[in-house]
Design goal:
By secondary structure, this protein is an alpha/beta fold. The protein has one domain: Rossmann fold (3-Layer(aba) Sandwich), CATH 3.40.50.300. Helix 4 crosses helix 7. The structure holds ligand Z5A. Ligand Z5A binds next to helix 1, helix 4, helix 6 and helix 8.
Length: about 220
């Protein structure tokens, strides 16, 4: 058990994780907490190099298991270099995507064997699991439309809609299997409302850990 608090954000592309992670980290900092905002894949210098291979649109031949192994390598580095040290120091870590992305994308999306993915993730994360996960739920069509508005799409955004539907179903199955940890948030609302729902979902845990008092409803 670590001293800090490990919060992850999950969801389909364009669900608003990046936007919401930033707002959440700012709010937690304003409450006087020591916050580290990070993401997968691609945190740190080594992670950044792995991310380039993963998202390069020219890498059309990347096999699903190669993709999974690269993501696991990225996670192993992130856990060792960033997550464990920060949590040992008592930081509040806000991480944009983590292991649930692995099970949703590589498992439900790509169809890789779930038992193998669990073993790979265990090897990479060494048992480090989030204390709470905020799942931003958005119909995949809406998420893709939002992501496409930003311009050129990367290798994974070029996947077809049925792929995104499968992983959306996957996220739902993960949330239903672990309702204590995974809190479902309606991400089709205005950004401020999404943020309010996330804070409300997080507040009981912050109070339980003695991190905040009445400042959080
Ligand atoms: N991946 C994997 O397969 N397996 C794994 O184990 C892990 C990851 C860890 C990372 O890509 C890719 O890696 C990802 C899964 C895979 N697949 N793809 N692609 P990434 O980090 O580059 O992308 P992402 O995580 O999918 O994030 P994103 O596409 O950038 O979306 P987002 O962070 O959820 O959303 P956003 O950037 O905050 O918002 C998207 C747009 O919508 C933007 O223009 C916003 O201004 C707008 N927006 C945000 N909120 C709202 C609301 N509430 N209303 C309207 N518009 C909004």
């Amino acid at each position: 058990m670590h001293k800090g608090l490990f919060i992850t954000l999950e969801g389909v592309e364009g669900a608003g994780k990046t936007t919401q992670a930033k707002m959440l980290a700012e709010w937690l900092s304003a409450l006087g907490l020591d916050v580290l905002a990070t993401r997968e894949p691609g945190a740190g210098q080594i992670g950044g190099q792995i991310r380039q291979v993963l998202l390069n649109p020219e890498n059309t031949e990347l096999a699903p298991m190669t993709e999974a192994l690269l993501l696991a390598a990225d996670r192993a580095q992130h856990v060792a270099e960033t997550l464990r040290p920060a949590l040992a120091q008592g930081k509040i870590v806000v991480c944009d995507r983590y292991a649930d992305s692995f099970f949703a994308y590589q498992g439900y999306g790509r169809g890789l064997d779930m038992a193998r993915l669990i073993a790979l993730n265990d090897a990479a994360a060494g048992g480090l699991a989030p204390d709470i996960t905020l799942l931003l739920e958005l119909p995949p069509e809406l998420g893709l439309a939002r992501a496409q508005k930003r311009g050129a799409s990367d290798r994974m955004e070029q996947e077809r809609l049925d792929f995104h539907r499968r992983l959306s179903d996957g996220y739902l199955a993960l949330a239903q299997a672990e309702p204590q940890r995974i809190k479902r948030i309606d991400a089709a609302q205005e950004a401020a409302q999404v943020q309010a729902a996330m804070r409300a979902a997080l507040a009981p845990l912050l109070r339980e850990r003695g991190l905040v008092e009445d400042a959080v409803r």
